[in-house]
Write a structure and sequence with these properties.
about 450 residues, alpha+beta, rod-shaped, 10 helices, single chain, 5-stranded mixed beta sheet, 13 strands
Amino acid sequence: MHRKRFKRLFHSVFTKLLATILVAGIVISLIIGIGFAHIRFHSLSHLDRNLLLYAEYLTRDLGDPPDIDRAKQIARRTGFSIRFEHLDQGWQTGSISDSFQFKRARVRSHGNGVWTGQHRGQFFIRLPHGGGELMFITPHQAGGHENAGKVLTFMAIAMAVVLAAAYFFIRRVLKPLRSLEAGVKEVTDGRLDHRVPQTGSDELRDLAEAFNTMARRLSDLLDSKEHLLLDMSHELRSPLTRIKVQLEFLKDEEVREALRADVAEMEAMVTVILEEARLRTSATALELANIELTELIRSVAEEFKDRSPAIVSDEPEPIEIQADREKMRMVLRNLLDNALKHTPEDGDPVTISVTRKPDSIDIIVQDRGEGIPQDALPHLFEPFFRADASRSRKTGGYGLGLSLCKAIIDAHKGRIDVTSHPGKGTRVAVTLPWDDSRPL
């Protein structure tokens, strides 16, 4: 589950937009950094030339060989540290910062033994003079690296603030998409009256409007289909009645009985369609009362005692819930009837069990029959849908049973789920809300 959630988050539009902003920020930072490095490189070149000119002037001022007293005067005025190294003698004006290390400095050669370098913000020049080597070292810029650290910290905090602001801004911009996703789930579950809010004035608002239009037209289309079916069923009653009357005048009794059986089957079909459509339309009109669930299950299972294979139910302790007794009876009857129809007569018994949880009651109907194809599972609760495309008389039904069951369970604020594996059987789980603190 966590892996699926992580994969969904990784591939979400929100994550892609945030990653795009992050990558764009990194690329912009790199471009700026390369630009500053380029400018700094050229600046160092100019600095080297200026330092060399200044060092040439100071070298002439020191004399040949260099005078230490003169060097001390220059050091006091400029802040430079001046060092002279010779085989016979050597001296140095002032002290050099402990952080300055010649071995770790970045140096550049300018020919004729002249070197310039830099380490930790201090620049130096080494050049041959007076039979030895003369070095000028710029003063240590106290706090330079500390300031650089503060600047980097500030930049990191600023980037974090910008990314956080971008995060919440993107969430706000994409909020209509989450509403649209919820709307798609509602419509998928059969609640075609659901509408998503139309906010803002951008493309997402247009998308929400298009979704609402689609849901409304789809609802109108299904309503038209149901009305057409009801109208046709009503209209068929009159010609069927006339046919039944005319049959009585047929002299050939064998033909009369055969036609009478066909007419009776057609009449039963029309009656079932009308009755199931009427019940599905009025499924939300509940007559709630306290009912004893285990007793209801036992009585419904008793209705199928002559059907094969048998129905096996556990014997849980009494459970009282608030529900519409007749409509719950209809749900249980439909589920058990479907399970028996799709299980061989010599197969394993159909089982029905009840599980009590702190906030819900689970009713499980399990068979070991032929199962349902995986591609049919998402459509099981659609009106007039049948997994058996052949419409054989053996399985019967008109594709309204499970649709009716879902409408009734939804009206009870419950949930109905179907899992199935072809050749292994089908499991239907009905979950009803229940309060364990309510006294029986």
